[in-house]
């Protein structure tokens, strides 16, 4: 019997979450009600095989910052799972069909996700659009430079919950400055404080340091500290979760604070932007080990509105030949004209200059993956000699796109 897809009812939340936890081979985490607070029951699916709940998925109504600073409605796919007894029979495919059709019905031009395994979602049209920088700074050996403009800052340790509103005000100011960031409701803001004891790996509870100038909060960092003693020497580690700052000096002062915490000799972070200033703040780059991993996957659901919603670094006027097997309404030729102030994207019969699939457009959409690098991998074809490079530069972003947290 083919499992039946139905919307999740609030009373089914516990079994839905149990199915999900089992599929990820994790125990049900503490504080899971925090996730319930952001669940959208009219976008959360269950797959039922008789009385057995065998599949889950959910989309969040997100808004993603795109190049130029606009905030674009996005169906953020998450909580996808299929019971081990029902895998490789097409259940994920059926749920994706429902979720992407629903995203389109809602008029959201974009869909996005972070993947448990990056190999799964290309077949559904999602391309890797942002990356996370994983950082490990050997703070016993490097210094972190702080510019003189930081001298009037006051740093203050505060309760993360009590300081939530001040921190969110900093986050809101940072929102348009980098593509990839998500608008945060109060529920999403609170979720960033999710800190169940079972997930602290022996570290402290979440700490928060505020940077203030003239009594106004201009930056914050949230982190925990793992104490670790080797032969009576402190080898503790600071684990940075989130750092936002209004200006460069404040960002440097916060990194300096983290690097100087007594009884620690390392600062680690696993979700920083690829161009995080820390690479230029440390006195010895080799002792700030930096590594990239995939982060946000983007899928244009309505290609025309999606490409017209962002701006372009250089003026461009080009025709793209696009294929999209899973959402065939996007397949065809599109004329894209735009510059740093806006863009138009419409269907055309004119000759195409570049040929690519919606996956490559998703990857390039936020300006973090270049069309040139995709062409060098044989994934974008230049149909008119010389067309590719200017379009590739126009799609770029002066700051790397960045998703500050998962969803
Ligand atoms: C956005 C998120 O929530 S990411 C979280 C994803 N969930 C997990 O990783 C939890 C553990 N895994 C699972 O629950 C399941 O294995 C899932 C959800 C990944 C796949 O569900 P299934 O119902 O088995 O997938 P389904 O049978 O629909 O497969 C669809 C296609 O994806 C492919 N696929 C499925 N799983 C994987 C995988 N892990 N890696 C690569 N390809 C995969 C299938 O081969 C199939 O390809 P095809 O259409 O080209 O033949």
Automatic annotation (TrEMBL):
<dbReference type="Pfam" id="PF13530">
    <property type="entry name" value="SCP2_2"/>
</dbReference>
<dbReference type="InterPro" id="IPR041380">
    <property type="entry name" value="Acetyltransf_17"/>
</dbReference>
<feature type="active site" description="Proton donor">
    <location>
        <position position="121"/>
    </location>
</feature>
<dbReference type="Pfam" id="PF13527">
    <property type="entry name" value="Acetyltransf_9"/>
</dbReference>
<dbReference type="GO" id="GO:0030649">
    <property type="term" value="P:aminoglycoside antibiotic catabolic process"/>
</dbReference>
<dbReference type="InterPro" id="IPR022902">
    <property type="entry name" value="NAcTrfase_Eis"/>
</dbReference>
<feature type="active site" description="Proton acceptor; via carboxylate">
    <location>
        <position position="407"/>
    </location>
</feature>
<feature type="binding site">
    <location>
        <begin position="116"/>
        <end position="117"/>
    </location>
    <ligand>
        <name>acetyl-CoA</name>
    </ligand>
</feature>
<comment type="subunit">
    <text>Homohexamer; trimer of dimers.</text>
</comment>
<dbReference type="InterPro" id="IPR000182">
    <property type="entry name" value="GNAT_dom"/>
</dbReference>
<keyword id="KW-0012">Acyltransferase</keyword>
<feature type="binding site">
    <location>
        <begin position="80"/>
        <end position="82"/>
    </location>
    <ligand>
        <name>acetyl-CoA</name>
    </ligand>
</feature>
<dbReference type="Pfam" id="PF17668">
    <property type="entry name" value="Acetyltransf_17"/>
</dbReference>
<comment type="similarity">
    <text>Belongs to the acetyltransferase Eis family.</text>
</comment>
<keyword id="KW-0808">Transferase</keyword>
<feature type="binding site">
    <location>
        <begin position="88"/>
        <end position="93"/>
    </location>
    <ligand>
        <name>acetyl-CoA</name>
    </ligand>
</feature>
<dbReference type="InterPro" id="IPR025559">
    <property type="entry name" value="Eis_dom"/>
</dbReference>
<feature type="domain" description="N-acetyltransferase">
    <location>
        <begin position="3"/>
        <end position="149"/>
    </location>
</feature>
<protein>
    <submittedName>
        <fullName>GNAT family N-acetyltransferase</fullName>
    </submittedName>
</protein>
<dbReference type="InterPro" id="IPR051554">
    <property type="entry name" value="Acetyltransferase_Eis"/>
</dbReference>
<dbReference type="GO" id="GO:0034069">
    <property type="term" value="F:aminoglycoside N-acetyltransferase activity"/>
</dbReference>
């Amino acid at each position: 019997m083919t499992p039946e897809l139905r919307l999740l009812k609030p009373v089914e939340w516990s079994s839905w979450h149990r199915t999900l936890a089992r599929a990820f081979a994790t125990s049900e985490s503490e504080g899971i009600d925090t996730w319930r607070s952001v669940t959208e029951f009219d976008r959360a699916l269950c797959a039922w095989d008789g009385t057995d709940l065998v599949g889950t998925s959910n989309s969040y109504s997100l808004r993603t910052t795109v190049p130029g600073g606009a905030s674009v409605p996005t169906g953020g796919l998450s909580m996808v799972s299929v019971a081990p007894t029902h895998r490789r029979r097409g259940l994920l495919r059926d749920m994706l069909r429902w979720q992407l059709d629903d995203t389109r019905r809602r008029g959201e031009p974009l869909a996005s996700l972070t993947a448990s395994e990056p190999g799964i979602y290309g077949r559904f049209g999602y391309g890797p659009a942002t990356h996370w920088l994983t950082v490990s700074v050997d703070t016993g050996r490097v210094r972190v430079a702080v510019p003189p403009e930081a001298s009037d800052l006051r740093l203050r340790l505060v309760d993360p919950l009590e300081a939530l509103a001040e921190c969110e005000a900093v986050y809101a100011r940072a929102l348009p400055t980098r593509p990839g960031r998500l608008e945060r409701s109060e529920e999403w803001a609170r979720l960033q404080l999710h800190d169940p004891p079972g997930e602290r790996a022996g570290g402290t509870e979440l700490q928060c340091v505020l940077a203030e100038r003239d009594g106004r909060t201009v930056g914050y960092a949230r982190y925990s500290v793992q104490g670790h003693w080797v032969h009576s020497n402190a080898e503790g580690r600071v684990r940075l979760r989130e750092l936002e700052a209004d200006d460069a000096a404040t960002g440097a002062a916060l990194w300096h604070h983290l690097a100087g915490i007594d009884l620690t000799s390392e600062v680690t972070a696993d979700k920083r932007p690829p161009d995080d200033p820390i690479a230029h703040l440390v006195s010895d780059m080799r002792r700030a080990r930096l590594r990239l991993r995939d982060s946000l996957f983007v899928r244009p659901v309505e290609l025309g509105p999606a490409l017209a919603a962002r701006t372009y670094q250089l003026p461009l006027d080009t025709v793209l030949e696009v294929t999209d097997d899973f959402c065939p309404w996007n397949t065809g030729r599109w004329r894209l004209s735009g510059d740093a102030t806006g863009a138009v994207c419409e269907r055309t019969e004119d000759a195409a200059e570049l040929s690519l699939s919606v996956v490559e457009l998703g990857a390039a959409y936020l300006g973090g993956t270049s069309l040139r690098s995709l062409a060098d991998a044989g994934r974008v074809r230049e149909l008119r000699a010389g067309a590719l490079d200017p379009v590739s530069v126009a799609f770029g972003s002066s700051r790397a796109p960045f998703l500050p947290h998962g969803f």
